[in-house]
Amino acid sequence: MRMTFLIPVAGMLLWVACQNDSNSEGVQEIRNTNGPNASIVRNPVNADGSLDTNALARIKFEEPIHDFGTVNEGDIVEHRFKFKNTGNVALSILDAKSSCGCTVPEWPEDPIPPGGTGEIVAKFNTDMKPNKQKKTITVTANTYPNETKVSLTGMVTPEGK
Questions:
Q1: How many other β-carbons are positioned within 10 Å of the β-carbon of residue 54?
Q2: Considering the entire predicted model, what is its pTM?
Q3: Per-residue pLDDT tens digits for 41-69
Q4: 91-108: buried (b, 16+ CB within 10 Å) or exposed (e) per residue?
Q5: C-alpha dihedral over 83, 84, 89, 93, to 10 degrees?
Q6: Which of 33, 89, 132, 141 counts the most CB atoms within 10 A of its CB?
Q7: pLDDT tens digit sequence for 98-130
Q8: Please, are residues 119 and 81 in contact by the beta-carbon 8 Å criterion?
Q9: Cα–Cα distance, 136 to 29 (Å, whole number)
Q10: Domains in the chain and their CATH numbers?
């Protein structure tokens, strides 16, 4: 009984899945490619397999490593990593992750045009983080290379000293 029900259902699913997106003349339709991210999504690989890095954004930080000096344990250190898009297309930051949960990065959501500037704000909570510290933030974007790192370094004076 079950097999007689499952076979037609499986056949119908297969038939629906195999339908293409052709119109009544059998011509394949082209989907709208003017979505909100159409201008930032690019394929930088040429037909010969070489990488065209001119078709990508580039992120150049003014200060990729910031030494915050000496602070007391429990302080929250904040630094703005300023950058410029030195590429030929709009720069979109997709993600920024810290090497530690004690550091929280914030980045611009809107694309940065070629020649434009922006900043990533990093907040480091020094609570229970005594002594020498180095916290790295990995920025993922439509750049070449697609990951760039910035770091906060410094000394945290232990509580009670």
A1: 11
A2: 0.69
A3: 455 555 666 666 677 899 999 999 999 99
A4: bbbeebebeeebbbbebb
A5: 10
A6: 141
A7: 999 999 999 999 999 999 999 999 999 999 999
A8: yes
A9: 46
A10: 56-157 (2.60.40.10)
